[in-house]
Amino acid sequence: MAFDLSDYEPVASRLDRFLKAHPDARVITDLVHYLSDIAVFKAELWLDGEIIATGWAEEIRGQGNVNKTSHLENCETGAVGRALANAGLSGSDFTKRPSREEMGKVQRMQGDTTVTEYSNVASEKQQNMIRAVCKSMGKVPPHNLQAMTKREASAYIDSLKNGEQPASTYDTPEEPF
C-alpha cells in the first residue's frame, strides 16, 4: 500500500485545534496494559464534565525507529489521535481519518519501502526531543535539525542519552543568540 504521510494531519495539530475550540476540555490518558514491551493506552476527551470520545492504541517496544526510544509516548499520542478522530477532528479531508502517526505505524508494520522523501524527515517529536535534551544539557541544538532524517535523529538522540558526543556534522558552531 503506497500512500503519502504528508496527506495525513499530525495528532498535535488536531489536539491544538480541539483545545483552542474548547479551552475547558480535558484530555485524560491511561496506560491500561504494559507487559512484555507491549503498551496499550486509552485516551478520553472530556467536555463539560462528560466523555465525548475515547481512543485506544497499542505499540511494541523496538518496532520501528520511534519505538526503540519512545514506544510509550508514541502509544499515548496514538490513543489521543484516535480519540480526536472519534470526536470528529480528523483533518480537513474526512477520508483521511487516521492521523499521520497512525499511518506511519501502518508503514512500519508493512515494512513499506516506498517511503516518501517527506516521511523520511525527522518527526516533530524527534526534533522536540533533541531540542529538549540539548537544552537540559546546556547544548545548542544542531543547525540542520529540520533536515535530519529519522535515522539520523534517532542516532543523535541515542548519542545524547548515552552521554556521547553526537556526530560533529550536526553541531552548531556559532552561538544561537
Compose a concise summary of this entry.
With 177 residues, this protein is of the alpha+beta class.
**Overall tally of structural domains:** 2
The biggest sheet, with number of strands, parallel, antiparallel or mixed sense and barrel status, is: 3 strands, antiparallel
Fold-level CATH name of the largest domain:
Double Stranded RNA Binding Domain
- Termini gap: 46 Å
Beta-strand residue percentage: 15-25%
Q: Record the strand order, biggest sheet.
A: 1-2-3
Query: What is the string of helix and strand elements?
Result: HEEEHHHHH
Give unreliable regions as ranges: 112-118, 168-177
**Which structural category do the helix and sheet elements fall into?**
alpha+beta
Report the strand count: 3
**Average pLDDT number:** 77
The count of helical stretches stands at: 6
| Broad shape | globular
Set out the fold topology:
Blueprint: H1 11-21, E1 26-35, E2 38-47, E3 50-60, H2 66-69, H3 71-86, H4 100-110, H5 124-136, H6 150-161
Helix pairs in contact: 1-3, 5-6
Structural overview:
The protein has 177 residues and is an alpha+beta fold. It folds into two domains: 5-120, Double Stranded RNA Binding Domain; 124-167, no CATH class. It is built from six helices and three strands, in the order H-E-E-E-H-H-H-H-H. The protein has helices at residues 11-21, 66-69, 71-86, 100-110, 124-136, 150-161, and strands spanning 26-35, 38-47, 50-60. It has a three-stranded antiparallel β-sheet. Helix 1 packs across helix 3 (71-86) and helix 5 (124-136) packs parallel to helix 6. The termini are far apart. Residues 112-118 and 168-177 have low confidence and may be disordered.
